[in-house]
């Protein structure tokens, strides 16, 4: 079974990650952090580069890092297609080091909590990397799902597509480890592929403790990309932090 972030991943064709959604998210973050013109930004777990590319369009200087080679290749292709310059590096955030601190950092869309195959260890150490990579007073935006609302909405199975081209998804949750497992079966007329994704869900209290342990101060907690405060019913948690 293939890792979810490998070549051919359904993540690369995620129907919800539209250009309009990306623009709206960056509109909010530019104001909420806030980002000064020309700020240097670290995009942690950049995936195929949708936030990095949008920031570069707005003349921010961006470094996107991700451990998956397929994601970095796709991000570079997307930047080239958009006609912008972004520095993309294939590296796990937990092992990244910079000698030139950043003005701001982003860690969005369930990056925090990813669990590699054959392990129950997540990537929470990336928060220490974020702290070390920021200037004094630098800002950090962290977005991830809130545990209980995510579990309430979790569907054991889904099927999308047509009779000949479709995706089947099976999901499960391990209450002992707090890990969600999603298995994807992707079928087309040419072939079929299976992908595997695991991530840990966190409560608000979990994340507050992790940020404090990393030395990051929470300035504001939102229930998404709007001005609404974070509540127990919010499906998303968006924390604006400072070093």
Structure report:
The structure is a single chain. The chain has 243 residues and is α/β, with parallel strands linked by helices. It has 2 domains: 2-146 and 202-242, Rossmann fold (3-Layer(aba) Sandwich); 150-196, no CATH class. The protein has 6 helices and 12 strands. A 7-stranded mixed beta sheet has the order 4-3-2-5-6-12-11, sandwiched between helices. Strands 1-10-9-8-7 form a 5-stranded mixed beta sheet, with no helix packed on it. It starts with a strand and ends with a strand. The model has no long low-confidence stretch (mean pLDDT 95).
List the helices and strands and how they pair.
Layout: E1 2-3, H1 19-32, E2 40-44, H2 50-57, E3 61-66, H3 69-82, E4 87-90, E5 102-107, H4 126-133, E6 134-145, H5 147-153, E7 157-161, E8 166-174, E9 179-187, E10 192-200, H6 204-213, E11 217-222, E12 236-242
Parallel strand pairs: 1-10, 2-3, 2-5, 3-4, 5-6
Antiparallel strand pairs: 6-12, 7-8, 8-9, 9-10, 11-12
């Amino acid at each position: 079974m293939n890792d979810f972030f490998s070549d051919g991943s359904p993540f690369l064709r995620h129907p919800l990650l539209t250009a309009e959604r990306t623009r709206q998210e960056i509109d909010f973050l530019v104001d909420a952090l806030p980002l000064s013109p020309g700020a240097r930004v670290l995009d942690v777990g950049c995936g195929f580069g949708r936030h990095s590319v949008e920031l570069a369009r707005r003349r921010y200087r961006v470094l996107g890092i991700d451990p998956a080679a397929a994601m970095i290749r796709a991000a570079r292709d997307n930047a080239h297609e958009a006609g912008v310059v972004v520095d993309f590096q294939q590296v796990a955030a937990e092992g990244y080091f910079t000698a030139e601190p950043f003005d701001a950092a982003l860690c969005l869309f369930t990056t925090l909590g990813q669990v590699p195959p054959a392990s129950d260890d997540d990537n929470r150490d990336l928060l220490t990397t974020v702290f070390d990579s920021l200037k004094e007073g630098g800002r950090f935006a962290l977005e991830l799902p809130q545990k209980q609302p995510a579990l309430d909405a979790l569907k054991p199975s889904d099927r999308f597509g047509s009779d000949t081209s479709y995706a089947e998804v099976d999901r499960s949750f391990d209450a002992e480890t707090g890990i969600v497992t999603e298995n994807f079966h992707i079928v087309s007329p040419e072939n079929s592929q299976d992908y595997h994704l695991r991530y840990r869900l966190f409560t608000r209290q979990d994340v507050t403790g992790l940020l404090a342990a990393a030395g990051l101060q929470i300035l504001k907690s939102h229930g998404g990309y709007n001005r609404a405060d974070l509540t127990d019913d919010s499906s998303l948690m968006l924390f604006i932090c400072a070093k």
